[in-house]
Amino acid sequence: MEKVYDYVVVGCGGIGSAALYWLSKRAGSGVLGLEQFELGHDNGGSQDHSRIIRMAYHDDIYTKLTPEIYKTFAVVEEESGIQLVYRTGGLLLAKKGETENLARKYADAMATHNIPCEWLSGSQLRDRYPQFTTDDNYVAVYQKDGGLVDAAMTNAVHIQLARGNGASVVENCAVLRLTRNKTGNVAIHTSKGEFVCKKVVVTSGAWINHVVGSIGVHIPIYVTQEQVTYLATSHMKEYVKEKFPIFFYHSSSHDIYGMPIHGNSGFKIGVDAGGPFVTPDTRSFTPDPVRENQCIDFLRQVLPTSVGPILYSKTCLYTMPPDRNFVIDTCHKTGFDDVIICNGAGHAYKFAGLLGKILSEMAIDGNTQYDISPFTLDREALKDPNYTPVFFMGTRNKLPSGKEKNQDKPKQAKL
Predict the structure, then answer these.
(1) Helix, strand, or coil here: 406?
(2) Are 36 and 229 in contact (CB under 8 A)?
(3) Rounded to an integer, what distance in angstroms lies between the CA atom of residue 384 and that of residue 375?
């Protein structure tokens, strides 16, 4: 195998596989992907039947980008001939007098960028989707373009198309460290030897500091073990993609999301950012029955026909900076402007295609056409050791229920 490349992507999950694809469209055989596990593994945060895609976001730093995420997925669908995105419609659900202001925040952020949405009372929601038993103590924001992405299929398609463009991928190849060689290029030392390249794109999720620590970079991140549960509802036809939307429910203490049936699975439900702090080495693959019950109790209140036997629960990792915003930058402050990093903050799968395109532009062109200024390493949340972590999307200034502020608090960036 060749050992010298123009561009190397470290980590071939959702964002990494997309970066590999977009790089390969312009650089062909000059692109290499390195994956420390087998492709399609479930050790990180990218592999599952479905992930939410939506225009709805709490801040215009994201809503200015959300229309573009659909465009990048459409390019891949056109090139592969495989449908990846399913528009089911999307809901943000809240209670009056409790989190209604948060739903309004999402609606206002969409309005800033002319993204159409509807404000529904709980009874109007019930009229539109009889599966819900909500009364007018609830409110909802509906956006027609919300839906799901077939995550496992998308990763595989990105990789297959990249290989078709001439890119190479090496599996079971852990990156041990980065250095600069005598020619001035970046040397990537791995469990399968050394590779040399002009630019490195690091999209290694919970392992990001394992990779960039060797060049003097440390990103303050919290890694949590999250989970989703699939239910075998006996009312399957009420929860197919054609009849039921994706939704996000914001309560005063936690956020819950749900998705219609897709692939060989059932109705999907999960608590967002509700899991314990872990490391990639200490995490378990054992689901938490408390969070399972939390989801089921909620469904019995507002979506009773969705409840059925648990098919299974599946764990994954979230990797989140203290402000839960993306990190997209180069390591220029430590003399490695040819090392580009991206962290998706536990909510980036819907952006995976766009982030892959952005990273390819940064690598090849030295800049990107998209506004990524809010996501640099040079921001308060990554520099201030007293920054209070905020993991709920756009909302409450505290850690998820049951977490202490100083528990496994990560070190601040050293740049």
Answers:
(1) coil
(2) no
(3) 15
Q: What pLDDT is stored for residue 395 in this prediction?
A: 60
Segments of the chain with pLDDT less than 70: 1-2, 394-415
Give strand pairing partners of 277.
224
Q: Quote the tokens at residue 157.
A: 């398609």
The strands making up 246-250's β-sheet, listed across from edge to edge, are 118-121, 138-143, 90-95, 246-250, 255-259, 267-272, 222-231, 310-320
Which residues does 143 contact at the CB level (< 8 Å), separation at least 6?
A: 54, 55, 56, 89, 90, 110, 115, 116, 117, 118
Q: Which ranges in 28-89 belong to alpha helices (H)?
A: 60-63, 66-80
Look at residue 401 in the predicted model and tell me its pLDDT: 43
CB 149 within 8 A of CB 349: yes
Length of the chain: 415
Neighbours of 360 (CB within 10 A): 27
The encoded tokens of residue 284 equal 């378990």
Residue pair 345/325 in contact by the 8 Å Cβ criterion: yes
Give the type of residue at 329.
Answer: D
User: DSSP for 327-340?
Assistant: EEEEEGGGTEEEEE
> CB-based contacts of 325: which residues, under 8 Å, 6+ apart?
61, 345, 374, 375, 381
* Residue 200: partners with Cβ closer than 8 Å, 6 or more residues away: 7, 8, 9, 10, 178, 186, 188, 338, 339, 340
